[in-house]
Specification:
Blueprint: H1 2-32, H2 35-69, H3 75-81, H4 84-132
């Protein structure tokens, strides 16, 4: 049973590495503003996250079965109680998975900030376009009624 947990952890590590790779691709797509690439990455990420969840459920089920057979032990104590080779593999895989999860979390923080910056830029540009129709800058049609100098909002305050 411990070997099955080790195999599941190895599959989780592979999936986590794929998520990290996708996270790097996502960063590049965000910087280049490649929406079609970003859509593909998000779909692949969803598939991998679902797979990772299934692997996690398998791992939990196996751990529960083992702990039911040895109710007085914690999982850490059980890892110490199994043969040295299996216990070492188990601890190694758990440590590797923790490191990969921390790495992915950092990459996701960077991508989250890039997304926020992109959204702020888009909102700013929309605001500029929406308000540009309201400004006349320096030109005023000779047929329109004259506005006073104080009421005019122009880039230049003097007449040419």
């Amino acid at each position: 049973m411990v070997e099955f947990i080790i195999q599941t952890l190895e599959n989780m590590i592979i999936t986590q590495k794929q998520l990290i790779s996708l996270s790097e691709r996502k960063k590049t797509a965000l910087i280049q503003r490649d929406v079609s690439e970003l859509n593909g990455i998000v779909g692949e990420e969803a598939r991998l996250v679902k797979l990772f969840g299934e692997l996690e459920n398998q791992r939990l089920e196996q751990a529960e079965l083992i702990l039911q057979a040895h109710p007085s032990l914690t999982f850490g104590q059980l890892a110490d109680a199994v043969p040295a080779e299996s216990g070492g593999k188990l601890r190694s895989r758990i440590d590797t998975l923790k490191e990969l999860m921390a790495e992915l979390q950092e990459k996701n923080k960077v991508n989250e900030q890039l997304l926020k910056d992109s959204l702020n830029f888009v909102q700013h540009m929309i605001g500029q376009v929406a308000h540009s129709g309201q400004r006349h800058f320096n030109y005023q049609s000779p047929l329109s009624p004259q506005k006073t100098q104080a009421g005019s909002r122009a880039f230049f305050d003097t007449k040419a």
